């Protein structure tokens, strides 16, 4: 019953924070749990991130498939200062995502703090949630800095 309460709390938090992705994910997991399909939870846990990243990548690549981004636009990424900065930003983001994934594997209960922090960012700063990986990556960096400063 504990897991169901957490999922219901996440649904409420998602609704209050206007985060349809968190709300939908918690609803789907609650349905899986209440419909007695718990045997699928390990598969969702194991493959869910891969599927999520697949669909995110598909969405990002649609402008290439639709022809909105041309070869000259791709070349611009390698020839303009803004393009180089974007390449650098992308490399840093993927590095942080890897650190976030490693942190979540070691400390999965951090997801609650990341979700509540993301919702706080949505409500107070009009932020846009892109998922727990980047938030976990930033958390990993902040934790490392705190460890260095505190000597732990």
Report what the structure shows.
The protein has 152 residues and is mainly α. It folds into 2 domains: 36 residues; 73 residues, no CATH class. Helices cover 83% and strands 0% of the residues. It is built from 7 helices and no strands. Helix 1 runs antiparallel to helix 2. The longest helix has 26 residues. It is globular and about 55 Å long. The model has no long low-confidence stretch (mean pLDDT 87). This is UPF0756 membrane protein E5161_03525. Keywords: Cell membrane, Membrane, Transmembrane, Transmembrane helix. It is a multi-pass membrane protein. Its main location: membrane. One of its GO terms (cellular component) is plasma membrane.
List keywords for this structure.
single chain; 152 residues; mainly alpha; 2 domains; 83% helix; transmembrane; UPF0756_TM; cell membrane; membrane; transmembrane helix
Task: Summarize the biggest pleated sheet.
Answer: none
Q: Calculate the terminal CA-CA distance, rounded to whole Å.
A: 37 Å
Helix content class: over 70%
* Structural shape: globular
Question: Helices, strands, pairings?
Answer:
Elements lengths: L1 H15 L3 H15 L6 H26 L4 H9 L1 H26 L3 H16 L6 H19 L2
What is this structure, in a nutshell?
The protein is 83% helix and 0% strand.
């Amino acid at each position: 019953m504990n897991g169901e309460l957490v999922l219901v709390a996440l649904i409420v938090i998602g609704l209050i924070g206007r985060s349809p992705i968190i709300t939908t994910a918690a609803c789907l997991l609650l349905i899986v749990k209440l419909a007695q399909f718990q045997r699928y939870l390990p598969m969702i846990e194991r493959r869910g991130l891969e599927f999520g990243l697949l669909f995110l990548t598909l969405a990002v690549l649609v402008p290439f498939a639709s022809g909105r981004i041309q070869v000259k636009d791709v070349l611009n990424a390698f020839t303009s200062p803004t393009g180089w900065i974007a390449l650098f930003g992308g490399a840093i983001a993927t590095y942080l995502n890897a650190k976030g994934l490693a942190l979540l594997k070691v400390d999965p209960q951090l997801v609650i703090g990341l979700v509540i922090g993301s919702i706080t960012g949505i409500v107070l700063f009009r932020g846009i949630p892109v998922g727990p990986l980047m938030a976990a990556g930033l958390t990993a960096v902040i934790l490392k800095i705190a460890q260095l400063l505190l000597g732990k």
